[in-house]
Design brief:
156 residues, alpha/beta, five-stranded parallel beta sheet, 5 strands, rRNA processing, S-adenosyl-L-methionine, cytoplasm, Alpha/beta_knot_MTases
């Protein structure tokens, strides 16, 4: 099983890239995780935000691997403890499909993206910068994989 993180936004700050890279490396033998950055829709004075979301959504959907189980990160999604996420990961492994995790733009996901998602996952009630979500997601996936492997990383 492989995973793809499809995220709206380009050129993260160095600290995000370094942190994501560290957890991606640690996770690589349990769940290879590739990042696909999607160009954000055009926003600004006189621009249509709905159109920007639609453009982002189309690019996100085009980046999806065929037959992947799609998990959209969304504040209205289901929240998991680390142990629950490990159980969810075990479920995903049992499906035998690749995974795609989706991080939307400033206004969230386009309706078409949410309609395509097999499930929605919330990282909690806080509003997080989208670049930080990349780092939190990769760390939590690593933690879940470490729990499943009985690795000492997770000390509850």
């Amino acid at each position: 099983m492989k995973a793809r993180l499809i995220a709206v936004g380009e050129r993260p700050p160095a600290w995000v890239s370094e942190g994501y890279g560290e957890y991606r490396k640690r996770l690589s033998h349990w769940l290879p995780l590739d990042l696909v950055e999607v160009e954000p829709g055009v926003r600004g004075k006189g621009r249509d935000v709905v159109r920007a979301m639609q453009d982002e959504g189309a690019r996100v959907l085009a980046a999806l691997p065929k037959h992947a189980h799609v998990v959209a990160l969304d504040g209205r999604g289901r929240g998991y403890s680390s142990e629950q996420l490990a159980q969810r990961m075990e479920h995903w492994r049992g499906q035998g499909r690749d995974l795609a995790f989706l991080v939307g733009g400033p206004e969230g996901h386009a309706p078409e993206v949410l309609a395509r998602a097999d499930e929605q996952w919330s990282l909690g009630p806080l509003t997080l910068p989208h670049m930080l979500v990349r780092l939190v997601l990769s760390e939590q996936l690593y933690r879940a994989a470490a729990l499943l492997a009985n690795h000492p990383y997770h000390r509850a």
